[in-house]
Amino acid sequence: MSDALVIGVLALQGDVREHLVALAAADAVARPVRRPEELADVDGLVIPGGESTTISKLAVLFGLMEPLRARVRDGMPVYGTCAGMIMLAEKILDPRSGQETVGGIDMIVRRNAFGRQNESFEAAVDVKGVTGEPVEGVFIRAPWVESVGAGAEVLAEHDGHVVAVRQGNALATSFHPELTGDHRVHALFVDMARAKRTGESL
């Protein structure tokens, strides 16, 4: 087995390239994942932003949904941004017809909670576990977390709403850190994946 830490990016829809760049900057080998056999070869996975209903339906179509759920249940590190946060929720308020989630974080998420595309904005967000200055969060049709269960840890809030959560090896943010050139959130996730592989705690 190679010593390189391999992190996949679910490449069905959304801002895949930006995540690949951010992960590489955080010292991981980054690969797109479209098929179950590619999923089997990664140490962790990023589920990018995009349209959560489309990502859900494509994951089912490409035969990825069940293998992804199984790997997340088994503790594979996974990080979801925006639509990816919705994919990691146990429950969605007002889901679209046929929309499924992977699960992994005991939270209820509201889709498009911060408004439509033309109401997108940037804001400085203090994220627990990320040292230094606040993270510049890009919110694009972003969800927020309505509530979290006992097993989930709130890492950040904005305007009174939860926008970053972690539960075990699963991490989720409402915002898009991959669009800013600040790779500290990705570095946190890479550290989580490395700790998982070495058996350490982070």
Overview of this structure, please?
- With 202 residues, this protein is an alpha/beta fold.
- The chain is built from 6 helices and 12 strands.
- The protein has helices at residues 16-25, 36-39, 52-61, 65-73, 83-88, 184-198, and strands at 6-10, 29-33, 44-47, 78-81, 89-93, 105-110, 121-125, 135-139, 144-148, 153-158, 161-167, 170-173.
- Strands 2-1-3-4-12-11-10 form a 7-stranded mixed β-sheet. It has a 3-stranded mixed β-sheet with strand order 5-6-9.
- A hairpin with a 2-residue loop joins strand 10 and strand 11.
- The longest helix has 15 residues, at 184-198.
Described by strand count, sense and barrel closure, the largest sheet is:
7 strands, mixed
The helix/strand order is: EHEHEHHEHEEEEEEEEH
SS summary, helix count = 6
Determine the mean pLDDT.
93
Multimeric status of the protein: single chain
The fraction of residues in strands falls at: 25-35%
Coarse shape = globular
Q: Find the structural class using helix and strand composition.
A: alpha/beta
Please state the CA-atom Rg, rounded to the nearest Å.
15 Å
Give the terminus-to-terminus CA distance: 23 Å
